[in-house]
Amino acid sequence: MNHCKIWSLGFLSLLTIQTAAGQEDLAIVFRLGDKDVQLETLPRAEALDQNSGALTIWSQNGIDRWVIGSPDATAPLAAATRSFDIQMTRDSNPVAASADANPRSSLDQIVGQVVIRGEGFLTPAHGGRHLDGKLTLRRRPQQGEIAFPQDSITIYQGNNPLLEVPLAEGVAKLSWAEIPDLPQQFADGLPPGTYSLRYADGKNNTSFTVEDEETAQWMLARSETLADLLGESSHPLVRVLTIGEMLSAIDEDGKPKPYLCDALDLTEQVSKEDWAQYLREWNDRILRQLKGEEPASTLEQPTGIATIDEARSLILQNRWQEATATLQPLLQESEDRRAQGLANLYTATILSESAADTTAAASADEHFAKAIECLQEAPASDRFRAHNNYANFLLLRSQDRLYNYAIQAASGVSSPLLLSVGQWQQAREQYEQALQLAESLPPGQIAATQVNLARAYVLLADIVQTLCRDEAELSSVGHDRIVESARQSAAAASENDPDAMTRGAAAEILAHLAFRDEDADTCRRHLQDALKAYTAIGYLPGIESGYRTLGMMNLRLGSSAAEQNPADTPLNSLMISQLLTEILRERFDSGRSGAMRSGFFARRAYVNEQIVELLIQQGDAMEALRFAELGKARSLQDVLMSKNLDASAAIDDNGPELDELLEHWPDDVVGLEYFLGSENSWVFVIAAGEVQALPLVDGDGNPIAPRQLIAEVTEFLQGMNFTAQQMLARYQSEGRFDSSWQDALADYYSILIPPSIQNQLTAAETVVIVPHHVLHYFPFAALVTEVDVHKADGFETVMPKFLIEQDLAITYAPSLESWALFRDRDRRVQKVHAIGIAEFEGAASLPGVEQDLKNLKEHFGDQMQTFVTGDQALESEVVKLLHQPGMLFAATHGMNHADAPMSSFLLCHADEVADGHLTASEVFANEVGADVVVMSACFSGLADRSPLPGDDLFGLQRAFLSSGANSVVSGQWDVYDATGPLLMNAFFAELNQGIPVASALAGAQRSFLRDRRIGGRKEVWIHPYFWSVYTAAGSDLVRFDAKPER
Question: Would residue 412 be called left, alpha or beta, if left means φ above 0 and alpha means ψ between -120 and 50 degrees?
Fold first, then answer.
């Protein structure tokens, strides 16, 4: 097997430190060896001076740069340099740094699997729950000569006997259909209710419950959906899913409460001769649990530590939440370093599933480091697991960056491609160490590492394919050699006695290679092998990724098999993948922020995107919107539903049904939900209960590429920061103000609100904006509906008309479903609490704060409950205010950390227990009792530079909404001290009249604009920087009771 040469330089940390400090940057050089491709990390200057690599990639000012081959020494390097730098021009398409270097489209995101080493009656069980009233009676054997003597039992409901069942000698099991002389009323089983089952002698009684029909339908709904997609209810995958759902069921308190008897019945419907591996294991596990016996270990090479092996078994069953709880006690420092190390290892392995989220990734990295430290003296098998699983984590992180590089680069994320290659290097090194350790272990461990190495080579081939323009360049960089290394590693794995999971992973890798080669028949053949192997062990993550690739293959390459089986269409296969993703996502703890579930979904959001695109192409806008909603703020909705919030009849345990939401859609509300995919951008328009899906296009009718839109909006928003200083500098240098902003906002108006729907907004009282990505921070209120053609000169300014002047309110919402949840809690606000800090040591003073607080007292004096200012505004005191009902007004400094949004904070004063930074993470950890939160704080930059695919954000606004607030008003950039208090004062006045929060803010903005127009063209404050800084998110109904007129 040919391996890439690796130089371990602690790449990631070194790159981060050097880039952040502005010191010498690094470059990664691809070199062609005799039979392989070698990667070397060098100082950038040295790498570019040598000019000897097949491909060199480096970072310059946070932007990925690369060069293919060795440029002509007489030509400037810049002429050959490539990047995905997007030019911010309306009249040109995105271009790369060199004139002829058009970037390739993003690769289809196909993912695969890395291999993780890691009473008298049996049924009905005492206290058990049953979905099916047609019970199977299984007796426990009795001591004595006759294990199953002749007897009779009676089924009671309360004290009323319902049914007597004779049991013949030797009968251990009796199905419902086998009960003799069964009364017709019980032909379909016992109706819902609680029952007891009693022997004639009164001993060994059992009580059990038959669930109601609604619960049974809810439990089986996804299995029925899967059967419809597959075209047959007897498909093995339907059985895998149904049994898995039954065994993973939880009760009202979130505790495991599986439907063991129903699951056991399903396993025994299949002849034992036809049992797959998962059926044998599940049947044995269920029977042992019913008998009260310890489950037999099915692990290869158990560690001998019962708690660790239990957690490993739960991980293999994708029961991550239970596994995490099992490992928790062993994470503390102890003398048993091996147990502590393994607990950290498998905790990190669980976190790896969600590591698209930066918080989960950082936590996983810490746990892996601790595990490797603790296991230095442990057996080779333990050290093998540590290096293998850490490599898997790094490889997935590399894959995350590669597959989302275009959007990340457009968002200003620093050098995502270079980081992807660096993490690939680290993963490769860890696999090498695992492979060395595996040589002393059973062959199956070698096979696992080889298949993971094959997966690494496939990803490296994708990296190279992303950077090269044509076949000639691919050949010059050694793409064929990398692909061959992947094939050889996969083939080597098959020769080392692999288990079913490893066989499935190897087959899936070969399918991926065939997919990239556009060989549909070979791809399908390998996928069938992979799905067969995964289904045999009931491994849902593998089945999900297999159907993802199957759907993408049918979509991109076509397949005659789809014509033979109508169920085998691209849309059906992708929907199967999406359904399994949703099931697996729910097996993570939603937690306070939902970040774990969001990180897990992020890696699979691409499937959702493809489904939305296909449904729009089919003209089914409503169904497309349904799937767009499935990808919007899912973690927020999970958290809200877990709080048992008041809900209308339109909202069940799964949140609002879209059909119900549209049926009761308010006449005076228009919804705009944006969806930015990999290649296309859309807006769903919801009005009068009808849904349209419209593409976002430029003035010439050409589709706007999402990465182009994101890059342009990001640049526009960055330009809004500290605009007052920029305006002054422009006037001082040129004697006039810039007016190009009105043209940009007019362009955005025609793009974001297509002309065909602009009249609908004119007639609306409220517009609900469900943004996507950077549009969460865009000031829709400032969209220019009519350009001012006057040529402003000197101290004059243009005075266009804005969207907010159409007498409507704008509220932002993470999703339509979360908006319905917020809106349904139409609570009246009674009390006001405030914190205000105008002076800080080491930070600029905020003179506008004192005026804000004075205005607040004037409007709400009799309702003011708590007023914490100056040195008294300690973080611990502010946290106490979070729990109080009413409106919380916070006037202070704020800081957004775009690349670590959970660290964004409101600045308070430090005390003995807190550092003075009230972070988003800390808000998530608290119950917020405030109905309305108003953050009159200066913020700089975006709250979340690159939201997770799936569009979950984790800044302060989302933290307050998730933790209990019903409406949040917040600033998008720095608040100008001379105008901020004017806006807030008008806002308070509107609130005092009983006007809802979003409408009150809109009224305040209109009042501000009217005053500016009265003042004439010298009123430079008409620039949106001064008045559109605030946005309202959440419910559009929450309000104060109107005060009587004085």
Answer: left
